[in-house]
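Reopening this one. Same input as before:
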Amino acid sequence: MAKTIGILGGGQLGRMLSMAAARLGVKTHIFEPLPNPPAGDVASKVTTADYSDEDALKAFAMSVDVVTYEFENIPTEALDIIESFCPVYPGRNALETSQDRLAEKRFLEGIGLSVAPYAQIDSLKDLEGALEEIGVPAILKTRRFGYDGKGQFKIVAKNQAVEAFDSIKGAPAVLEGFVRFEREISIIAARNKNGEISSFDPGENIHLDGTLHSTTVPASLSHALQTDAVLLAARVLNALDYIGVMGVELFVTQNGLTVNEIAPRVHNSGHWTQNACLIDQFEQHIRAVLGEPLGDGQRHSDSVMTNLIGEDVNHLEKFNNYALHLYGKADIKAGRKMGHINQISPKST
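Same output, byte for byte:
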Protein backbone atom coordinates (compact mmCIF):
# COMPACT_ATOMS: atom_id res chain seq x y z
CA MET A 1 0.00 0.00 0.00
CA ALA A 2 1.01 3.61 -0.49
CA LYS A 3 2.19 5.22 2.72
CA THR A 4 0.42 8.57 2.61
CA ILE A 5 -2.83 9.76 1.04
CA GLY A 6 -3.41 13.46 0.51
CA ILE A 7 -6.98 14.62 1.10
CA LEU A 8 -8.30 17.90 -0.26
CA GLY A 9 -10.74 19.21 2.34
CA GLY A 10 -10.70 18.80 6.09
CA GLY A 11 -14.36 18.39 7.02
CA GLN A 12 -16.09 15.39 8.54
CA LEU A 13 -15.69 13.25 5.43
CA GLY A 14 -11.95 13.91 5.45
CA ARG A 15 -11.93 13.04 9.14
CA MET A 16 -13.63 9.69 8.60
CA LEU A 17 -11.43 8.90 5.60
CA SER A 18 -8.38 9.57 7.77
CA MET A 19 -9.69 7.24 10.47
CA ALA A 20 -10.29 4.48 7.93
CA ALA A 21 -6.81 4.97 6.46
CA ALA A 22 -5.25 4.72 9.92
CA ARG A 23 -6.88 1.33 10.46
CA LEU A 24 -5.06 0.17 7.32
CA GLY A 25 -1.73 1.58 8.49
CA VAL A 26 -1.90 4.45 6.00
CA LYS A 27 -1.12 8.08 6.88
CA THR A 28 -3.15 11.04 5.65
CA HIS A 29 -2.19 14.62 4.87
CA ILE A 30 -5.04 17.14 4.84
CA PHE A 31 -5.04 20.27 2.66
CA GLU A 32 -7.61 22.73 3.98
CA PRO A 33 -7.91 26.55 3.71
CA LEU A 34 -9.63 26.99 7.10
CA PRO A 35 -7.79 26.54 10.42
CA ASN A 36 -8.53 23.71 12.86
CA PRO A 37 -10.57 21.47 10.54
CA PRO A 38 -12.34 18.39 11.96
CA ALA A 39 -10.01 16.09 10.01
CA GLY A 40 -7.00 17.76 11.62
CA ASP A 41 -7.67 15.97 14.91
CA VAL A 42 -6.97 12.56 13.39
CA ALA A 43 -4.77 13.12 10.32
CA SER A 44 -1.00 12.73 10.35
CA LYS A 45 -0.41 16.18 8.90
CA VAL A 46 -2.40 19.29 7.95
CA THR A 47 -1.52 22.03 5.49
CA THR A 48 -3.52 25.21 6.04
CA ALA A 49 -3.45 27.16 2.78
CA ASP A 50 -5.72 28.44 0.04
CA TYR A 51 -6.33 26.41 -3.10
CA SER A 52 -4.65 29.25 -5.03
CA ASP A 53 -1.37 28.87 -3.10
CA GLU A 54 0.87 27.23 -5.70
CA ASP A 55 3.84 26.66 -3.39
CA ALA A 56 1.67 25.02 -0.74
CA LEU A 57 -0.01 22.81 -3.32
CA LYS A 58 3.35 21.69 -4.74
CA ALA A 59 4.73 20.87 -1.29
CA PHE A 60 1.53 19.00 -0.43
CA ALA A 61 1.58 16.96 -3.64
CA MET A 62 5.25 16.08 -3.23
CA SER A 63 4.62 14.78 0.29
CA VAL A 64 2.00 12.15 -0.63
CA ASP A 65 1.64 9.14 -2.91
CA VAL A 66 -1.88 9.81 -4.16
CA VAL A 67 -4.51 12.52 -3.62
CA THR A 68 -8.25 12.25 -3.14
CA TYR A 69 -10.90 14.74 -2.01
CA GLU A 70 -13.90 15.04 0.26
CA PHE A 71 -15.88 17.61 -1.75
CA GLU A 72 -16.41 18.49 -5.39
CA ASN A 73 -15.74 22.20 -5.67
CA ILE A 74 -11.99 22.12 -6.10
CA PRO A 75 -10.55 24.71 -8.50
CA THR A 76 -9.23 23.23 -11.74
CA GLU A 77 -6.02 25.23 -11.35
CA ALA A 78 -5.25 23.46 -8.07
CA LEU A 79 -5.68 20.07 -9.73
CA ASP A 80 -3.36 21.12 -12.56
CA ILE A 81 -0.58 21.67 -10.04
CA ILE A 82 -1.19 18.53 -8.00
CA GLU A 83 -1.47 16.21 -10.99
CA SER A 84 1.99 17.20 -12.19
CA PHE A 85 3.40 15.47 -9.09
CA CYS A 86 1.00 12.64 -8.23
CA PRO A 87 -2.28 11.05 -9.35
CA VAL A 88 -5.68 12.31 -8.17
CA TYR A 89 -8.57 9.88 -7.69
CA PRO A 90 -11.41 10.00 -8.57
CA GLY A 91 -10.21 11.49 -11.84
CA ARG A 92 -10.70 14.86 -13.47
CA ASN A 93 -13.53 13.66 -15.70
CA ALA A 94 -15.74 12.71 -12.76
CA LEU A 95 -14.97 15.90 -10.88
CA GLU A 96 -15.70 18.21 -13.82
CA THR A 97 -18.95 16.38 -14.57
CA SER A 98 -20.25 16.67 -11.02
CA GLN A 99 -19.15 20.29 -10.54
CA ASP A 100 -21.68 21.53 -13.09
CA ARG A 101 -25.31 20.44 -12.79
CA LEU A 102 -25.90 20.99 -16.49
CA ALA A 103 -22.89 18.91 -17.53
CA GLU A 104 -23.96 16.21 -15.08
CA LYS A 105 -27.47 15.94 -16.53
CA ARG A 106 -26.18 15.84 -20.09
CA PHE A 107 -23.70 13.12 -19.15
CA LEU A 108 -26.38 11.01 -17.45
CA GLU A 109 -28.72 11.36 -20.43
CA GLY A 110 -25.83 10.46 -22.72
CA ILE A 111 -25.41 7.07 -21.09
CA GLY A 112 -29.12 6.35 -21.31
CA LEU A 113 -30.28 7.26 -17.80
CA SER A 114 -33.41 9.17 -16.85
CA VAL A 115 -33.19 12.62 -15.22
CA ALA A 116 -35.75 15.26 -14.23
CA PRO A 117 -36.96 17.66 -16.96
CA TYR A 118 -34.48 20.55 -17.07
CA ALA A 119 -33.44 23.68 -18.93
CA GLN A 120 -30.27 25.76 -19.07
CA ILE A 121 -30.80 29.19 -17.47
CA ASP A 122 -28.49 32.10 -18.27
CA SER A 123 -30.99 34.98 -18.16
CA LEU A 124 -34.36 35.95 -16.78
CA LYS A 125 -35.79 35.45 -20.27
CA ASP A 126 -34.46 31.87 -20.25
CA LEU A 127 -36.15 31.25 -16.91
CA GLU A 128 -39.49 32.67 -18.00
CA GLY A 129 -39.43 30.54 -21.14
CA ALA A 130 -38.41 27.40 -19.25
CA LEU A 131 -41.23 27.86 -16.74
CA GLU A 132 -43.70 27.96 -19.61
CA GLU A 133 -42.28 24.73 -21.00
CA ILE A 134 -41.54 22.77 -17.80
CA GLY A 135 -44.26 24.25 -15.61
CA VAL A 136 -44.45 24.58 -11.84
CA PRO A 137 -43.55 23.55 -9.27
CA ALA A 138 -39.89 23.63 -10.25
CA ILE A 139 -36.54 24.33 -8.64
CA LEU A 140 -33.99 26.84 -9.87
CA LYS A 141 -30.48 25.65 -8.98
CA THR A 142 -27.12 27.26 -9.55
CA ARG A 143 -25.01 25.12 -11.85
CA ARG A 144 -22.08 25.19 -9.41
CA PHE A 145 -21.37 25.38 -5.66
CA GLY A 146 -24.75 24.19 -4.37
CA TYR A 147 -25.21 21.64 -1.57
CA ASP A 148 -27.66 20.82 1.24
CA GLY A 149 -30.35 22.99 -0.31
CA LYS A 150 -28.07 26.02 -0.82
CA GLY A 151 -28.08 27.84 -4.16
CA GLN A 152 -31.69 26.80 -4.81
CA PHE A 153 -35.09 28.45 -5.07
CA LYS A 154 -38.36 26.55 -5.17
CA ILE A 155 -40.78 28.11 -7.66
CA VAL A 156 -44.45 27.35 -7.08
CA ALA A 157 -45.90 30.08 -9.33
CA LYS A 158 -44.66 31.48 -12.64
CA ASN A 159 -44.81 35.05 -11.34
CA GLN A 160 -41.89 34.18 -9.01
CA ALA A 161 -39.43 34.19 -11.91
CA VAL A 162 -37.87 37.56 -11.03
CA GLU A 163 -37.62 36.71 -7.33
CA ALA A 164 -36.04 33.35 -8.10
CA PHE A 165 -33.52 34.77 -10.57
CA ASP A 166 -32.55 37.54 -8.15
CA SER A 167 -32.06 34.98 -5.37
CA ILE A 168 -29.21 33.33 -7.26
CA LYS A 169 -27.79 36.72 -8.28
CA GLY A 170 -27.87 35.89 -11.96
CA ALA A 171 -25.48 32.94 -11.66
CA PRO A 172 -25.60 30.32 -14.44
CA ALA A 173 -28.35 27.92 -13.42
CA VAL A 174 -30.56 24.97 -14.27
CA LEU A 175 -34.31 24.82 -13.89
CA GLU A 176 -35.48 21.38 -12.81
CA GLY A 177 -39.04 20.19 -13.05
CA PHE A 178 -40.48 18.31 -10.08
CA VAL A 179 -40.39 14.53 -10.29
CA ARG A 180 -43.32 12.67 -8.78
CA PHE A 181 -41.58 9.98 -6.78
CA GLU A 182 -42.49 7.38 -4.23
CA ARG A 183 -39.22 7.65 -2.31
CA GLU A 184 -35.62 8.75 -2.69
CA ILE A 185 -32.83 6.20 -2.43
CA SER A 186 -29.09 6.29 -2.82
CA ILE A 187 -26.49 3.79 -3.92
CA ILE A 188 -22.97 3.89 -2.56
CA ALA A 189 -20.64 2.03 -4.89
CA ALA A 190 -16.90 1.71 -5.42
CA ARG A 191 -14.67 0.92 -8.39
CA ASN A 192 -10.92 0.33 -8.43
CA LYS A 193 -8.23 0.61 -11.10
CA ASN A 194 -8.90 -2.93 -12.33
CA GLY A 195 -12.56 -2.16 -13.00
CA GLU A 196 -13.71 -4.20 -10.00
CA ILE A 197 -17.00 -2.83 -8.62
CA SER A 198 -18.55 -3.33 -5.20
CA SER A 199 -21.89 -1.81 -4.22
CA PHE A 200 -23.60 -1.40 -0.88
CA ASP A 201 -27.33 -2.01 -0.55
CA PRO A 202 -29.64 0.88 -1.50
CA GLY A 203 -30.56 3.20 1.37
CA GLU A 204 -33.85 5.08 1.66
CA ASN A 205 -33.39 8.79 2.38
CA ILE A 206 -35.51 11.36 4.22
CA HIS A 207 -34.67 15.06 3.81
CA LEU A 208 -35.69 17.97 6.03
CA ASP A 209 -35.21 21.57 4.82
CA GLY A 210 -32.97 20.40 1.99
CA THR A 211 -30.59 18.45 4.26
CA LEU A 212 -30.41 14.70 4.66
CA HIS A 213 -32.11 13.69 7.91
CA SER A 214 -31.91 9.90 7.83
CA THR A 215 -31.03 6.89 5.71
CA THR A 216 -32.69 3.53 6.31
CA VAL A 217 -31.42 0.16 5.09
CA PRO A 218 -32.97 -1.91 3.67
CA ALA A 219 -34.94 0.50 1.51
CA SER A 220 -38.55 -0.29 0.68
CA LEU A 221 -37.75 -1.64 -2.78
CA SER A 222 -38.56 -4.71 -4.80
CA HIS A 223 -35.66 -7.03 -5.52
CA ALA A 224 -35.85 -6.04 -9.19
CA LEU A 225 -35.48 -2.33 -8.39
CA GLN A 226 -32.61 -3.03 -6.01
CA THR A 227 -30.83 -4.82 -8.83
CA ASP A 228 -31.63 -2.00 -11.27
CA ALA A 229 -30.18 0.56 -8.86
CA VAL A 230 -26.93 -1.35 -8.45
CA LEU A 231 -26.56 -1.85 -12.21
CA LEU A 232 -27.32 1.85 -12.80
CA ALA A 233 -24.55 2.88 -10.41
CA ALA A 234 -22.14 0.50 -12.14
CA ARG A 235 -22.99 2.07 -15.51
CA VAL A 236 -22.08 5.52 -14.16
CA LEU A 237 -18.81 4.29 -12.63
CA ASN A 238 -17.71 2.52 -15.80
CA ALA A 239 -18.66 5.42 -18.08
CA LEU A 240 -16.41 7.73 -16.05
CA ASP A 241 -13.61 5.14 -15.68
CA TYR A 242 -14.07 5.96 -12.02
CA ILE A 243 -11.73 5.12 -9.14
CA GLY A 244 -13.07 5.47 -5.61
CA VAL A 245 -16.46 5.59 -3.90
CA MET A 246 -19.42 7.42 -5.45
CA GLY A 247 -22.86 8.32 -4.13
CA VAL A 248 -25.74 8.15 -6.62
CA GLU A 249 -29.06 9.65 -5.51
CA LEU A 250 -32.16 8.25 -7.23
CA PHE A 251 -35.89 8.89 -7.31
CA VAL A 252 -38.13 5.83 -7.37
CA THR A 253 -41.02 6.62 -9.72
CA GLN A 254 -43.86 4.69 -11.34
CA ASN A 255 -41.70 4.44 -14.45
CA GLY A 256 -38.57 3.22 -12.71
CA LEU A 257 -35.47 5.04 -11.47
CA THR A 258 -34.60 8.67 -12.17
CA VAL A 259 -31.17 10.04 -11.25
CA ASN A 260 -31.24 13.06 -8.97
CA GLU A 261 -27.50 13.66 -8.74
CA ILE A 262 -24.11 12.00 -8.40
CA ALA A 263 -21.38 12.78 -5.88
CA PRO A 264 -17.79 11.71 -6.69
CA ARG A 265 -16.82 10.98 -3.10
CA VAL A 266 -17.91 9.21 0.05
CA HIS A 267 -21.45 10.30 0.86
CA ASN A 268 -23.57 11.23 3.87
CA SER A 269 -26.15 8.58 2.94
CA GLY A 270 -23.44 5.92 3.22
CA HIS A 271 -22.55 6.54 6.87
CA TRP A 272 -24.75 3.60 7.90
CA THR A 273 -22.06 1.28 6.52
CA GLN A 274 -19.79 2.13 9.46
CA ASN A 275 -21.76 -0.11 11.83
CA ALA A 276 -23.79 -2.38 9.54
CA CYS A 277 -21.01 -3.66 7.25
CA LEU A 278 -17.65 -5.32 7.77
CA ILE A 279 -16.06 -2.90 5.27
CA ASP A 280 -17.52 0.63 5.36
CA GLN A 281 -17.59 3.22 2.56
CA PHE A 282 -14.52 5.02 3.90
CA GLU A 283 -12.28 1.96 3.94
CA GLN A 284 -13.63 1.00 0.54
CA HIS A 285 -12.59 4.40 -0.84
CA ILE A 286 -9.10 4.12 0.66
CA ARG A 287 -8.70 0.65 -0.85
CA ALA A 288 -9.83 1.88 -4.26
CA VAL A 289 -7.57 4.93 -4.53
CA LEU A 290 -4.58 2.89 -3.37
CA GLY A 291 -5.18 0.29 -6.07
CA GLU A 292 -6.01 -2.46 -3.59
CA PRO A 293 -8.74 -5.10 -3.98
CA LEU A 294 -12.13 -3.89 -2.80
CA GLY A 295 -13.73 -5.31 0.32
CA ASP A 296 -17.02 -7.16 0.57
CA GLY A 297 -19.81 -4.57 0.74
CA GLN A 298 -22.45 -6.89 2.16
CA ARG A 299 -24.23 -5.71 5.27
CA HIS A 300 -24.60 -7.90 8.35
CA SER A 301 -27.34 -5.75 9.95
CA ASP A 302 -30.22 -3.46 9.14
CA SER A 303 -29.48 0.16 9.96
CA VAL A 304 -30.93 3.63 10.42
CA MET A 305 -28.47 6.52 10.14
CA THR A 306 -29.68 9.84 11.57
CA ASN A 307 -27.79 13.10 11.16
CA LEU A 308 -27.27 15.27 14.23
CA ILE A 309 -27.99 18.78 13.02
CA GLY A 310 -27.25 21.78 15.24
CA GLU A 311 -28.70 21.34 18.72
CA ASP A 312 -29.61 17.69 18.03
CA VAL A 313 -26.21 16.84 19.43
CA ASN A 314 -27.35 18.01 22.86
CA HIS A 315 -30.50 15.87 22.86
CA LEU A 316 -29.22 12.34 22.42
CA GLU A 317 -31.57 11.10 25.14
CA LYS A 318 -34.31 10.79 22.52
CA PHE A 319 -32.40 7.99 20.79
CA ASN A 320 -31.92 4.40 21.92
CA ASN A 321 -29.15 1.87 21.30
CA TYR A 322 -26.97 3.82 18.92
CA ALA A 323 -23.37 4.11 17.79
CA LEU A 324 -22.31 7.74 18.05
CA HIS A 325 -20.08 9.47 15.49
CA LEU A 326 -19.17 13.08 16.36
CA TYR A 327 -17.19 15.31 14.02
CA GLY A 328 -15.21 17.35 16.54
CA LYS A 329 -16.77 20.68 15.58
CA ALA A 330 -16.38 23.23 18.36
CA ASP A 331 -19.33 25.49 17.59
CA ILE A 332 -22.94 24.38 17.33
CA LYS A 333 -24.79 26.26 14.58
CA ALA A 334 -28.26 25.89 13.12
CA GLY A 335 -28.08 23.62 10.09
CA ARG A 336 -24.55 22.43 10.83
CA LYS A 337 -23.89 18.69 10.78
CA MET A 338 -22.36 17.94 14.16
CA GLY A 339 -22.32 14.18 13.84
CA HIS A 340 -24.56 11.19 13.21
CA ILE A 341 -25.81 8.08 14.92
CA ASN A 342 -26.24 4.57 13.56
CA GLN A 343 -28.88 2.28 15.03
CA ILE A 344 -28.56 -1.32 13.91
CA SER A 345 -30.81 -4.37 14.22
CA PRO A 346 -30.67 -7.97 12.96
CA LYS A 347 -30.67 -8.23 9.16
CA SER A 348 -34.19 -8.71 7.84
CA THR A 349 -33.84 -9.01 4.04
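So the earlier flakiness isn't reproducible anymore. For the record, The first helix runs from residue 12 to 23.
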